[in-house]
Specification:
Layout: E1 7-10, H1 14-25, E2 30-33, E3 45-48, H2 50-58, H3 62-68, E4 74-79, E5 85-90, H4 92-99, E6 104-107, H5 108-122, E7 127-128, E8 133-138, E9 143-147, E10 152-155, E11 157-160, H6 167-172, E12 179-191, E13 203-209, E14 212-219, E15 224-232, H7 247-253, H8 259-267, E16 274-280, E17 292-294, H9 297-300, H10 309-324, H11 330-359, H12 364-372, H13 376-385
Parallel strand pairs: 1-2, 1-11, 2-7, 4-13, 11-17
Antiparallel strand pairs: 3-6, 4-5, 8-9, 9-10, 12-15, 12-16, 13-14, 14-15
Helix pairs in contact: 1-5, 1-10, 2-10, 10-11
Bound molecules: flavin-adenine dinucleotide.
Length: 395
Amino acid sequence: MTSGAPVLVAGAGIGGLTAAICLMRADIPARVFEQAAVLGEIGAGIQVSANAGRVYRDIGLMDAIEAAGALPETYRFRMFDDGAVLQEIPLGEAYRARHGVPYVTIHRADLHSILVDAVHRLAVDAVRLGARVDDFTQDGAGIVLRLAGGETICGVALVGADGVKSTVRRLLIGDPPARYTGDAVWRAIVPAEALPPAYRDNAVDIWVGPGRHAVTYPLRGGRFVNFVGCVEHPGFEDESWTTAHPWEEMRDDFAGWHPRIGAIIEAADRGQCYRWALRIREPADNWSDGRVTLLGDAAHATLPYMAQGAAMAVEDAAVLARCLCAGDPVVDAIGRYQRNRIPRTTRIVNESTANRALFHLPDRQALRDAFARRDMNAERTAWLFSYDALTVPLD
Ligand SMILES: Cc1cc2nc3c(=O)[nH]c(=O)nc-3n(C[C@H](O)[C@H](O)[C@H](O)COP(=O)(O)OP(=O)(O)OC[C@H]3O[C@@H](n4cnc5c(N)ncnc54)[C@H](O)[C@@H]3O)c2cc1C
């Protein structure tokens, strides 16, 4: 890519911001257009595994992420009621020694602001707020982006990092909106000091049980505990991330679960219990056209049952920057990016969907048997955590 015109990025989520940083660090000018008037992220946690951490380290952000987050010692799959450990993945120093970067859990708002600061350090005016991408046209010379209100902006390429309800995807592919999976998710963050000391484990715990599962892990150096409760709710379609629901419904959804889950729910702020619908798409075999491509949830919306949605977006960003700075024509670079990303992201989306069936098996014996047949540490080490977006050979 030789043109001095910028790559235009729709969306300033984790994917769009990381893409802008990777591009600008490769001396490719980038501009991000965000529909929201104010930058921010919802109050919830996010896990940063090594495959994302390597990219953050490369762009100089891993120390800040580590300092703002927590460093759990272990990742456990546990029985919903008695807490028996069904499988375990060592984290902490063993994980860092094996993968070169730690496994971090971090508040989304903290991660987002680290990314925003990094973009601003590279180019103070790179992110434009209150700028909803509405349409685009392209020809051999470049892209013309149209914002709501009619303003147009010229660029060399367009990256739709505009999330699960992507406008760029609708214009590009025209497929139906992402469908409701049948699972709704509770989220809450509680102060660790509100829990008995025995319940402040420095662990990522996946509590599996009939028709639902819960995820708990520390945030902000262990001062807070993140709770995510994924429940099969066939009729539930609401998708707002910011609508509070009655606390009692969350309590009832996890009645009879391990006392640690009960203690976390008991400690939750009763006016701040959020529940939203999980949406996915079947993996696509094409998400680009000419100078336009997709990244992150816009390209490959997934169930969060491997905690890999944002990690995939971060990998996408690194591979896209590698392809665009290799000197090929833009259209070829975008084709190469897509070719190299689809097999991996399809695998992660499909395995995340398969985890729904595994985590929600109907009884204790079925759960015990299914987990006894797996070796989650070996599986995830072999292909998931070991992927290095910076050095993986590109065809
Ligand atoms: C319960 C849950 C837990 C999760 N846990 C993890 C985890 O532990 N680890 C992990 O890696 N992933 C996790 N994920 C997935 C992760 O949250 C997403 O995959 C990730 O945030 C997607 O980032 P994105 O940048 O692609 O999209 P988004 O974060 O959705 O960002 C899209 C941005 O585009 C903007 N936008 C939309 N339309 C337009 C437009 N037309 N013009 C301009 N701007 C626009 C939006 O306002 C938004 O800012 C989890 C998801 C859920 C639901």
